[in-house]
Amino acid sequence: MKTEDKLRKILSLFPIPGELKEIKANNQGHINSTFISIFIENGKEKRYTHQMINSTVFPHPDQVMSNILNVTEHIRKKVKGLEDEERRTLRVVPADTGLPFALDDDGMYWRTYTFIDGVRSFDRVSNEDTAYNLGQGIGTFQCQLSDFDSSRLYTVIPHFHDMRLRFQQLREALANDPLKREGNIRKELEFLFENEKRLSLISDSYYKGLLPSRVTHNDTKINNVLFSEKTGKALAVIDLDTIMPGTVLFDTGDMIRTACSTADEDERNTDLMEFSIHYYKALKEGYLDAAHSFLTDDEKDGIKESGRSITAIMAVRFLTDYLNGDIYYKISYPEHNLVRAKTQLKLIESMDRQWQDF
Ligand code: ADP
Ligand code: GN1
Ligand code: MG
Known about the structure:
This protein has helices at residues 3-11, 61-78, 128-144, 163-176, 186-194, 196-199, 201-207, 248-259, 277-291, 297-324, 336-354, and strands spanning 19-26, 33-41, 44-52, 92-93, 102-103, 109-114, 119-120, 214-216, 225-228, 234-237, 244-246. It is α+β, with helices and mostly antiparallel strands. The protein has 2 domains: 12-116, Phosphorylase Kinase, domain 1, CATH 3.30.200; 128-357, Aminoglycoside phosphotransferase (APH), C-terminal lobe (Aminoglycoside 3'-phosphotransferase, Chain: A, domain 2), CATH 3.90.1200. The strands form 3 sheets. Strands 1, 2, 3, 4, 5 and 6 form a 6-stranded antiparallel β-sheet that branches. A 3-stranded antiparallel β-sheet has the order 7-9-10.
């Protein structure tokens, strides 16, 4: 069956009113397969997002969806009465069965969200206002969930941000090295293994129980936040697949990693990658404006280190996938994961060089 016919068949499993006009792929994410559709309902266009959940990464998609339903319901109550309340969190469209997903002929899980219109998304920051707005958006999101009992959430990927486990996975990948790629990454491996202890500081603190366990998004890169076209402010934090118990510092870390970098995650010219202190200051200000009331002193003190830690965990994960033959992240060319790892390492080097200045 042609892809378009396959997609039409999947969409027919959801009670979407109107006539399907168009369906297009969105290739921004590294994990799921995302499509945007346009339906004509009473003469008006209405858009939806349809995603096939990556079942290798998420072996229990039903648990992923249960987390998403619980968290979005909680946020929906918090934003009731605010301007744009409908667009401030994801809205799941249940399938005809009433379940929050439908299975295709291959047993793959699909879900549908209403599309959040009137928004912009970015792969990185290009001015301090956006950095501030991102920080404020993530801080607000955490604040909205600060009274949600994180033990109600399924841990959909155990030890997701456990740096010691990630190092172990890197060592295992090195031992197997199916494509004999070790020789290409000696310098990168040397840096990571030499710095393992300091790059594991945040993860070690959390797993030793020294930081509070809270609802954590675990994937707060900038393109998982939608910004209002009208106000420029963050409207919704999306991509809630990895929402699990964790530390807020995993989330500050990923926003710092993606908002304070001067180049894309997969920029081939690493000379373009630097850590921007200006963006960091604006981002932190926005974040604390929204989150200061519930954070402990230890959490506030960990913000700076969290950026370095999460950047390092990405470097380790991208290199591991490169060694394993690119089985986890979507890639567009054979060296893609290596390029991603190199930008992360360059970002750490730039943070290290400027560490006393911010
Ligand atoms: P992945 O897990 O693969 O990263 P995402 O859930 O982040 O998938 O979706 C990929 C992209 O699709 C997002 O970065 C965003 O631009 C767009 N998107 C996803 N869901 C919506 C939505 N409900 N409204 C508007 N845009 C969306
Ligand atoms: C993946 O799904 P996406 O593209 O938003 C990954 C994150 C990484 C990110 C790196 C479930 O996020 O952990 O930080 O790529 N998601 C998962 O860009 O592994
Ligand atoms: Mg995403």
